[in-house]
Amino acid sequence: MLGNARINDCLFRPFEIGAKSMRKMSPTRWWAGSLAVPVILLAGVLPLMAQDEGANPQKPADDPVLTMFPHSQTARWWVSGQDNIISQWHPSFDAKYSGPNSFKTHSEHAVSNIGTLFTGLQLTGTTEIFMHFEMADGGGLSDALGMAGFTDLDVVRNPTLGTTPYVARGMIRQIIPLSSETVEAERGPWYLATKVPVRRLELRFGKMGTNDFFDVNDVGTDSHLQFMSWTVDNNGAYDYAADTRGYTIGLLAEYHDRNWAFRFEEALMPKVANGIDLQWNLRRARAENYELELHPSIGGKRNMALRLLSFVNHANLGVYRDAIANYRSGQTPWPEITAHPLHTTIKYGFAVNLQQQVSKNTRAFSRFGWNEGQHQSYAYTEVDQTLQVGADLYGEHWKRRLDKVGLVVVTNAIKKDHQEYLRLGGLGFLLGDGGLNYSRENIVESYYNAHVWRGIFTAFDLQHINNPGYNRDRGPVLVPSLRFHLDF
Fold first, then answer.
1. pLDDT > 70? residue 481
2. Are 49 and 451 a contacting pair, CB within 8 Å?
3. Which of 7-21, 212-226, 334-348 comes out lowest in average pLDDT?
4. Which residues does residue 196 pair with via DSSP β-bridges, in sequence order?
5. Are 388 and 327 in contact, with CB atoms under 8 Å apart?
6. Exposure letters 181-198 (e unless 16+ CB within 10 A, then b)
7. Domain ranges in the chain?
């Protein structure tokens, strides 16, 4: 069996040869080149895939099986699992300088592997408990440093945590009916009831991912079947409460009505930026999250979802302007965002999440995010403002209706004080080139996700990052990826 190094040589050697000439192109030609690769790939592969689909007609096309094993829709218990392997590579690229947290300029590859076991039990018709177990292996390019919109959402940002399995989620769900009328609900790892009241209050308590319930988008949320970039699958400016693995302890309350919902969560923050340990003293640190979800009628159809989100984080947050002042007065050898007495300050922000069904097989989405940017990026990534626009298309036109192609454009930014902090040599938990010639970090990502059989999916993904880490003195960078996904 081939080792990771030999596998990546076989998979990515053609891109490395092409990249040597692409590095000499202008940024405009780079962007055009990055989009041309998946187009060429689709042109060559789709006819073959269409033939394969027609050669195996045992299962009716309208009754697909999307997991390796069937899941009961009536049992009180739930057991399922996933495994997601992402292999990424990038060629060498030009940079005038590098720092401790820079994306590496030499060619490199990395493989991440994250496996999850989902279990649930329906105690009563309105009470459910869930336990999700996870194991993360491998790592990211450049140890997941040097980009705000890093290329692999599956990467755990602290490589010292090891591969020991851990409890990702452990929570209880309580449904409080507020109407006798019910609607059908989809069963899965987070929801077991197949019918719920139209008007209801839902309470959850325990360990969970804040982004499991906030800023969700059917087109750009799942790195296992959709896009892979951190600032595509999540709103980059949403510094949501989480430890370094992406989880927190929280109390979530949701009110659901016929065409709208409102949710609120009180959650724990980590003790330090990107830390694994949570602060249990709510007077020192906590996070409030609010989201209004609307499903307006457009042209007589409810084919739009609009989510308006706000967050307020209380934590031991440093202030960029204070760190710069301390450096200039000689109190620190360089700007240090953590060089301050223990205190509690506030970081807040807003986000808009829009999803639109354009046609039977096409969906579009957009996100805008903003946070005040004066206090340090603490829990997710180093973004103070972001805008993304994208879409996906199911493959029914080429007789591969379970396949999907997606394309998105993202632009990220940071505020003046954050820029100056990095320019003077300051380090964040992700960024720090030792200097900064500021420009917005712009990302184009495209993918083709192919359904192979039952719960087996494979995908090709291509990301082009211009001004990685907001630095026009570095890059651009081209990152091709291959993904293998298995649903049990």
1. yes
2. no
3. 7-21
4. 183
5. no
6. eeeeeebebbbbbeebbe
7. 4-75+90-112+145-159+218-246+289-487
CA distance 478 to 464: 5
Contact 119, 79 (CB under 8 A): yes
DSSP string, 302-336: --EEEEEEEEEEEES--BHHHHHHHHHTTSSSS--
For residues 230, 461, 88, 53, the Cα torsion angle rounded to the nearest 10 degrees is: 130
First to last CA, the chain: 24
How does DSSP classify residue 268?
P
Rounded to an integer, what distance in angstroms lies between the CA atom of residue 180 and that of residue 200? 10
User: Which long-range contacts (C-beta less than 8 Å, at least 24 apart) are formed by 293-297?
Assistant: 293/260, 293/261, 293/262, 293/263, 294/259, 294/260, 295/259, 295/260, 296/259, 297/259
Give the relative orientation of helices 416-423 and 320-328 as an angle to the nearest 10 degrees.
Answer: 40
- Give the residue among 150, 66, 54 at the shortest CA–CA distance from 103: 150
What the block records as the tokens of 162 is: 């090891």
Q: Tell me the pLDDT tens digit for each residue of 200-249.
A: 999 999 999 999 999 999 999 999 999 999 999 999 999 999 999 999 99
Q: Is 288 helix (H, G, I), strand (E, B) or coil?
A: strand
Distance CA 125, CA 304 (A): 30
Q: Are 9 and 15 in contact (CB under 8 A)?
A: no
Q: Which residues are CB-contacts of 308 (< 8 A; sequence separation ≥ 6)? A: 291, 292, 294, 350, 351, 352, 353
Asked whether 260 and 294 are in contact (CB, 8 A), the reply is yes
Stated as kind and residue range, the H or E segment containing 28 is helix 27-54
The DSSP letter of residue 429 is S
Query: Which DSSP state fits 332?
Result: S
**Residue from 314, 324, 294 nearest 425 by CA:** 324
Using the structure block, give the residue that is written with the tokens 């602290």. Answer: 158
Per-residue model confidence (pLDDT) at position 454 = 94
Per-residue confidence (pLDDT) for residue 62, from 0 to 100: 57
DSSP conformational letter for 231:
H
Structure tokens given for 299:
């042209």
Using alpha carbons, select from 251, 151, 465, 211 the residue that is nearest to residue 351: 211
Q: Is the pTM of this model over 0.90?
A: no
